[in-house]
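To: structure desk
From: M.T.
Subject: fold request, one chain
Message: Could you run this one when you get a chance? Sequence is below, nothing fancy, just the single chain.
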Amino acid sequence: MKTLAFLLSLFAAGAGPAFASTLADWTFETTTPASAGPFAPEIGSGAARGSHAGAAVYSSPAGNGSSHSFSSTLWAVGDYYQFQVSTVGFSDLNISWDQTSSNTGPRDFKLLYSVDGATFTQFTTYSVLANASPNNVWSSGTPHPEFGFSYDLSSLPVLDNQSAVYFRLQDVDTVSANGGTVGTAGTDRVDNFIVTADVIPEPSAYAFAAGLGCLACALWRRRAAIGAV
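Reply: Done. Structure tokens follow.
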């Protein structure tokens, strides 16, 4: 009986859940943007950049509870921030980030994804809070969770095990964060863009777990047959 229990425990361990790993984390604390990029993440690997139709000014003002973020001016419909990572060996992606705009910066965005950097698909739309009263204001001190966004992308297997996956935070209209119209000096800033995913188990691990499962079932049937005699 102990042998059967031991084999079942090994099977459970071999078929157990994967654990999330951080593929990339952009805090902008060491890169301190002053251009469109690209910028490597502080943790992991990848590239972040901005793209504007006009001559936007890039800077690194206070983040959401940190000293720096990625900020830009002169927002027009279609302008975006982009983050690229490799997901080779990983599946079931999750992404999170903090984002805010000045009163005259853009309010409405869409989250897009791509596996070739050319064809993008919309995942969702969202709106950011103004970095002004009556809301909290970003500073290097206390982070404010109400500025955070988080999405489970495990329903998109196309993003799994890819040499490059791209995410865009793209301006969708001319409505500003205070409900007016986006101004040329209006800013939007992003911070703490994090991509996590589960490690894809090696085929040998699946085979080992399956073999243990078959052995455990065979032992159980044998014991059941003996008990029935």
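Reply (cont.): Residues 2-16, 205-217 have pLDDT under 50 and may be disordered. Let me know if you need anything else for the meeting.
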